[in-house]
Write a structure and sequence with these properties.
alpha/beta; Rossmann fold; SDR_fam; about 150 residues; signal; oxidoreductase activity, acting on the CH-OH group of donors, NAD or NADP as acceptor; 5 helices; about 45% helix
C-alpha cells in the first residue's frame, strides 16, 4: 500500500475503546490498544508523506450478535443493539468517504466527549443511572458468559 500510495486499513474497535465498563477491563484494554495503534499508524503514515493510504477506526456500540447477547442498559430503547448489516453499511460508508474515525451510533459521540471531559464521580454516577455498571453482570445472569471473564 505504501509503495503504491493507495489503500485503506480498517480496524473495528468498540466504544469500549473510548470508555471503560465495569466487568470488562480485559475487553476494554484490547479495544483501547486498537485505538492507540490506529492513531499511531495514522500519524506515521502522515509523517512519512503517505497521503493515499487511509486508516479508519470504527467504534460500534454493542452489536446484536452472540458476543454481547443479553447486554442491555436501563434504557434499551435509547441504547439499542446495532444490527450487523447496519454496521457493515456504516463501515463501507466510512471507507468510501475517507473517514478516519466513526462512532456508531452517532449519539455515542456525546458519551465519548462526556467521558473525556467530566470528572470521574460524574461518569460513575451517569453509568450507574443508565445501568452501564451492570451490563456484564446482566449478560452472565442471562447465561451469556462468552465475553470478558467467560
Amino acid at each position: 500500500m505504501i509503495a503504491h500510495n493507495k489503500g485503506h486499513i480498517v480496524a473495528v474497535g468498540s466504544v469500549l475503546g473510548l470508555m471503560g465498563l465495569n466487568g470488562a477491563a480485559d475487553y476494554c484494554g484490547s479495544k483501547f490498544a486498537t485505538d492507540g495503534f490506529m492513531d499511531a499508524l495514522r500519524d506515521e503514515l502522515k509523517s512519512e508523506g503517505v497521503s493515499g493510504v487511509t486508516a479508519t477506526t470504527i467504534y460500534p456500540y454493542h452489536v446484536d450478535n452472540d458476543m454481547f447477547a443479553g447486554a442491555a442498559t436501563r434504557f434499551p430503547k435509547l441504547f439499542p443493539a446495532i444490527n450487523e448489516d447496519y454496521l457493515s453499511q456504516k463501515i463501507v460508508d466510512a471507507v468510501l468517504s475517507g473517514r478516519e474515525r466513526m462512532i456508531v451510533p452517532k449519539l455515542l459521540y456525546l458519551s465519548a466527549l462526556f467521558y473525556r471531559i467530566a470528572p470521574v464521580p460524574a461518569i460513575t454516577a451517569v453509568m450507574k443511572f443508565i445501568g452501564g455498571h451492570q451490563v456484564i453482570e446482566n449478560m452472565k445472569e442471562r447465561g451469556h458468559s462468552n465475553t470478558c471473564r467467560g
